Prior knowledge:
The complex is a heterodimer of chains A (507) and B (196).
Chain A: H1 3-8, H2 18-42, H3 44-69, E1 71-74, E2 78-83, E3 89-94, E4 98-105, H4 107-111, E5 114-121, E6 129-135, H5 136-148, H6 155-158, E7 166-170, H7 173-181, H8 184-204, H9 211-224, H10 229-240, H11 243-266, E8 270-274, E9 277-282, E10 287-293, E11 299-305, H12 306-310, E12 313-319, H13 328-331, E13 337-341, H14 342-352, H15 369-392, H16 403-417, E14 419-422, E15 426-431, E16 435-442, E17 446-453, H17 455-460, E18 462-469, E19 480-485, H18 486-502
Antiparallel strand pairs in A: 1-2, 2-3, 4-5, 4-10, 5-6, 7-8, 8-9, 9-10, 11-12, 11-16, 12-13, 14-15, 15-16, 17-18, 18-19
Helix pairs in contact in A: 2-3, 7-11, 8-11, 9-10, 10-11, 15-16
Chain B: H1 3-12, H2 18-31, H3 47-77, H4 82-110, E1 112-115, E2 119-124, E3 129-135, E4 139-145, H5 148-153, E5 155-162, E6 169-176, H6 177-195
Antiparallel strand pairs in B: 1-2, 2-3, 4-5, 5-6
Amino acid sequence: MTQAEEQDAFSLRRLSWATLWLSIVEGVFGLIVPLVVLTTVLGFDRAFGILLKFVFLPSVIYYVIHFVSFRFGVNQRELAIRSGVAFRRDRRIAFERIQDVDIEQSFLSRLVGMASLKITTAGAEADEATLKYLSYRDAEDLRRILVKAEKPESDGASLQNESEADCLCDLSVRDLAWGALTSNLVAALFAMLGAFAYVDYFSYWGIESFDEAAEKHAREFLSRYPLNDFITRGVEYVLFSGSAIKAFLLALIGALFSMLAFVVKYYGFRLELLGRVATRSYGLLTRRRASLSQDRIQALKLEEGLLRRWFGLVAIRVDTAGDRKELDETKKKDLLVPVIKRADSVGVLQKLQPLLSSASPPLESLSKLAVMRRTRLGTLPVLVAAVLTWFASPWAALVWLPGLPLIYFLNLKWYHHSGYWCGEHHVIWRHGWLNRSTLFLPIRNIQNVSLSRSPFDRRLRLATLVIDTAGQSNTGGGAVIPHLPIREARALQVQLAEQVAQARFGW
Amino acid sequence: MDTEESSNESVENRSEEPIATSVEKAEIDVEVPSGPPTQRWRQLDLSVVQLWSLSGWIGCGSLLLIGSAGLIALWLNTPAPRLVLCLLWLALACFFYLQAIWLPPRKYEAWSFFLSSEILELRFGVIWRKSVLIPISRLQHVDLHRGPLERRLGLSTLEVHTAGTRNASHQIPGLPEDEAIELRDELVRKAKLEQE
């Protein structure tokens, strides 16, 4: 056997034995809710029988077959996975094609020291491979092998000890609580409160709210289930008391829950940088440890809603080429850094993107025409609504009147907060006021640059610049810079394309 | 149009600023939309107009026929308001006119592309004018399509793919067959050069 062949040889092995019983135990837990639901309909015996025969047993058989047929192994360059019985699948994943590696430990698997490993590559429909379960030590070892091999030329860095990792960000429960409190969700809840109060206000004017019908149904429902008196009173109070108090209580409960969920999800958050690999670990119940290489970053996004800006906080999102639209639903809430002080975020950005010369350079603004254009566009739905209301009652149409200056004000704010900057290695595009976000795109990862002009754009000699990069799903799309004067836009387009052509693209 | 000459030119002028001419063109383009292309800008084959109007005639024509039949049936058998039926038919006819007669020559006018040593630029769109710059080093792969109508007219469509998300792939329609193959080979060659 030559040396090259030796390097290519795999020693395939099985997943941990715990895979078998852990999957089965998790399956049992997963069946509790369906069992309860089915019991109310069919009675316990039949529900139990059905779930046992049609769900539990087949899944046990599946787990056993999966466990028996699944093998994996690594050599110097690749990860090999063999699975399937009837249709056998041999999959090779080159280390340098791996986008990110996640270790996930659910609460149960943490108790017994097991973990699952998820691997994402650029081309795959979903996660390229999931190894479930390995002992935590094995998973860590494997993760280290996979991510360290990402950049063969940075061998020096990869030989560093894990303990020498540079900690970029370490969040306490207090930080997380602040982050949750200032998130836009909370703001939305308070806005809802306002809306409730508003509706209530209308109901005083004799416009019947649908609350009343709902109230009647709810009372009937409650009378059928005689609960503990105290609970009944409490529920009654929340459901039927005056709308304002109700709204306030609901908003408060919602805020509390969202805060709790946020803290539980990101508990003990820590972001470390070792060589070129950034690793973040977090979670109270389900513990995650995700690694990604600096070079894989397609886009970084700072998110700072109005509330967060007041408190000087931001959140950071990241995109790699492995992120794609179909996965969006599950990945949407996943942040690189859930919350961080604005001042500290500059450091994190510069550590993650060493070539970024400045995290907040002076931005070029868009064409001044943008304000009026956006206002005109925003006015249209308001006018339509006003006309429709007019038919119901002419006076009520006046309700929409304050909307017009409000739209102008919002767009003015939008304009003042929006702008772009194009440096040697990065493009920065910031926009929004209520929900301001700043996008950082490494120029070497840009795929193409296009300019588009609608008939209205052409009349005003404006254009929209669209910068396309791979995997824009976490950050909600690449940079779309509207309302640019045509000459400026064209110059920028050509400049960017030339810079891209000169830079080397790496996945 | 002499493709060989222009491709040679762009290879020779590697170090010079071929894209600067396209900046000039852009400014011309701003003043006079879709003005006459300068020498290096390549246009599609003229027979693409035929292709587009033919597919317009077939696609929208059958739509018009079916729609008309349906409307006539409604006219004869139901008390549907006559004015609405007339307007519906008019809308159908307008759509047909736009797709089969009005649009094809204008689409042809708007289409042009330009290949410098590093960048492929595409210009197209009648109502929404678009210009796309694709650095050749970012090409993932290049496809050549030939539909039945295209085969009849001796045309091909070249599709270039990048790894982007929204505008990942772009098509250059209506290229004469040999020119399409030549362009594809040139793109692949340049992409390879870039890789090295």
